Amino acid sequence: MVWSHVGLNCADQKTTEEFYTRYFGFTRARVVDLGDARIIFLRQGDVYLELFAAGAEPAAGRAHHDGPAAPGRMRHLAFQTDDVDAFLATLGDGAEVTLGPLDFDDFICGWRTVWVRDPDGVIVEVSQGFEDERAHGDDQAPMGSHDDKDGV
Questions:
Q1: Low pLDDT (below 50) residues in the chain
Q2: Is the dihedral of CA 76, 80, 84, 89 positive or negative?
Q3: Which residues contact 6 (CB under 8 A, 6 or more apart)?
Q4: Most exposed of 23, 80, 92, 102 (fewest Cβ within 10 Å)?
Q5: Considering the entire predicted model, what is its pTM?
């Protein structure tokens, strides 16, 4: 099983597409024409965003800080960069910062994060310096893998 994509409802698909292509390096991978609607697929490496025109349902409320904590709601999208400050300089006034930047050196040396709001109100986290936890100085086995030397 491999992860596929995140689908986003957009007030204006063009505005959302421009945001993710300009600031996050996505490119248009495909447009599916459904007659009365269309779906835009954006790709950056192995990551896809699927952009839908928003329906008439009322919004669940504007997300703040690092995103909503309610069950069933996506908290935020997250991306890694080499330099949060350089990202913020590029972003300029292209999005509202909702939280941070915050330093998490007490947990991981060099880990720094900022959260911004995309054109549709989705919270997007941008971090630098996050690393996976190491077990006894070695890489941990991926979830679901088995350690052959122990016979499991």
A1: 140-152
A2: negative
A3: 48, 49, 50, 74, 77
A4: 92
A5: 0.80
